[in-house]
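User: Could you go from structure to sequence for me? I need the amino acid at each position, not a summary. Structure tokens:
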């Protein structure tokens, strides 16, 4: 079955989709992006991702090329053309095409690209059922990782190093030995006192849309929760740990730097949050 992408107003064959050589996203990383999960044909947290997209665009002073309603029509058409039941939708908006020069161009139109890809949910569910091992690494990223830009080289390198060392992923740790977040996920623990913790959403982390939804879910379930940073040592002493993101939903972390977290198996709180999140998302009525 052919795959389709969307580039600046047109649906095109994925293999033939291309952007201009002087797109500022390509040359300067002058672009923002979003990733939505799709499960059973349902687009997860659709409004949350749109709201963050607006914040990222505003932070870079890029004018949204489309309104949300038009964007959603394109997203749904892309899903339909790709017969996407389980997978991801990727959106990127750059400042546009201009002669290479650092300042914002006087005249440029934001470029927009969208792609869709399938994901094996059975495999993702199995990974969550087993839990993953992560390693820590120094957070060398810039000071505004709260803006969802495409500048992801530290994340790419950290993930690659983790895989090469036999781990599934990496958690960034700041200069005070406090965990910031994962390479493409927010980091959580259930600490030794039974308090669910994730780092406050400052400029030091990306404020995950899944994170925000899970905070609400945790509160609805009556779990004691605080936005409170935790150290690598706190994580090693924790009862449970897990990550949240559009690509992992809630996935237990059962080991850190080769040492087990809790009893080294997925814990009941992470499992409950994942189950509740998936059932809430798939039962939400959407226009
Ligand atoms: N990443 N932190 C970072 C650094 C991320 O890149 C992401 C998402 C998250 C979680 O955000 P959300 O819950 O909105 O997915 C946290 C996407 C999935 C990616 O880059 O593929």
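Assistant: Here is the amino acid at each position, in order:
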């Amino acid at each position: 079955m052919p795959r389709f992408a969307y580039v600046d107003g047109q649906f095109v064959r994925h293999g033939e989709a291309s952007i201009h050589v002087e797109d500022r996203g390509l040359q300067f990383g002058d672009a923002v992006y979003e990733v939505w999960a799709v499960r059973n044909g349902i687009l997860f947290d659709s409004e949350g991702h749109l709201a963050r997209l607006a914040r990222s665009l505003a932070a870079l002073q890029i004018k949204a090329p489309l309104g949300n309603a038009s964007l959603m029509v394109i997203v749904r058409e892309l899903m339909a053309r790709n017969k996407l039941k389980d997978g991801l939708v990727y959106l990127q908006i750059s400042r546009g095409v201009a002669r290479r020069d650092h300042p914002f161009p006087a005249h440029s139109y934001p470029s927009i690209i969208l792609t869709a890809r399938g994901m094996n949910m059975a495999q993702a569910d199995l990974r969550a059922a087993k839990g993953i091992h992560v390693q820590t690494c120094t957070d060398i990223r810039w000071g505004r990782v709260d803006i969802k830009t495409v500048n992801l080289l530290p994340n790419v390198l950290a993930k690659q190093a983790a895989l090469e060392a036999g781990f599934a992923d990496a958690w960034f740790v700041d200069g005070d030995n406090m965990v910031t977040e994962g390479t493409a996920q927010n980091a959580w623990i259930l600490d030794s006192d039974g308090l669910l913790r994730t780092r406050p959403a400052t400029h030091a982390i990306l404020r995950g849309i899944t994170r925000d939804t899970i905070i609400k879910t945790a509160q609805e379930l009556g779990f004691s929760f605080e936005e409170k940073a935790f150290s690598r040592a706190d994580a090693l002493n924790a009862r449970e740990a897990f990550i949240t993101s559009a690509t992992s939903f809630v996935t237990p972390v059962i080991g850190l730097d080769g040492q087990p977290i809790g009893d080294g198996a997925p814990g009941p709180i992470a499992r409950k949050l994942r189950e509740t999140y998936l059932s809430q998302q798939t039962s939400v009525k959407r226009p």
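One structural detail worth keeping in mind: The mean pLDDT is 97.
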